[in-house]
């Protein structure tokens, strides 16, 4: 969803989007068929998605690290090797204007795994509401990086 939103804004060649879990439990498995169904309903392909586990070196390599729930946020925060890495971690829904500034517990997205199609639809809407804010954040970061490069030239 985020990759498609960034592509629509012409940012696809400037940023990369990927995902990983905080555990290796699902590593190597394809996307949940219910999630795939929900994404397909909006013409988003997911056939190539394979779950993988977070790698510690990604703290250094990523500029923004989005957590979906408070457990992910806590795990990432505890695993962060330094303050710079810690500053990259945000709750995904903190970018939703309706959720910004709320307690981190309230910003969490419930795992729809144990639910049905309606739960996957609800998660889709929660993520969708945060996308414009994430896109604006990325645009600002790209613009800032470009300005720093111009100044350094």
UniProtKB/TrEMBL annotation:
<feature type="domain" description="Phosphotyrosine protein phosphatase I">
    <location>
        <begin position="1"/>
        <end position="137"/>
    </location>
</feature>
<dbReference type="InterPro" id="IPR050438">
    <property type="entry name" value="LMW_PTPase"/>
</dbReference>
<dbReference type="InterPro" id="IPR023485">
    <property type="entry name" value="Ptyr_pPase"/>
</dbReference>
<dbReference type="GO" id="GO:0004725">
    <property type="term" value="F:protein tyrosine phosphatase activity"/>
</dbReference>
<dbReference type="InterPro" id="IPR036196">
    <property type="entry name" value="Ptyr_pPase_sf"/>
</dbReference>
<protein>
    <recommendedName>
        <fullName>protein-tyrosine-phosphatase</fullName>
        <ecNumber>3.1.3.48</ecNumber>
    </recommendedName>
</protein>
<dbReference type="Pfam" id="PF01451">
    <property type="entry name" value="LMWPc"/>
</dbReference>
């Amino acid at each position: 969803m985020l990759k498609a939103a960034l592509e629509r804004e012409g940012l696809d060649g400037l940023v990369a989007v990927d995902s990983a879990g905080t555990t290796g439990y699902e590593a190597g498995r394809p996307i949940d068929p219910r999630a795939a169904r929900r994404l397909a309903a909006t013409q988003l392909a997911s056939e190539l998605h394979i779950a993988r586990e977070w790698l510690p070196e990604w703290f250094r390599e990523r500029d923004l690290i989005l957590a979906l729930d408070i457990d992910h946020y806590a795990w990432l925060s505890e695993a962060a090797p330094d303050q710079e890495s810690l500053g990259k971690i945000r709750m995904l829904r903190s970018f939703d204007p309706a959720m910004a500034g709320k307690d981190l517990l309230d910003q969490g997205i419930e795992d729809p795994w144990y639910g049905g199609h309606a739960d996957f639809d609800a998660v889709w809407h929660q993520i969708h509401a945060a996308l414009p804010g994430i896109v604006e954040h990325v645009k600002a970061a790209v613009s800032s990086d470009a300005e720093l490069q111009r100044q350094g030239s």
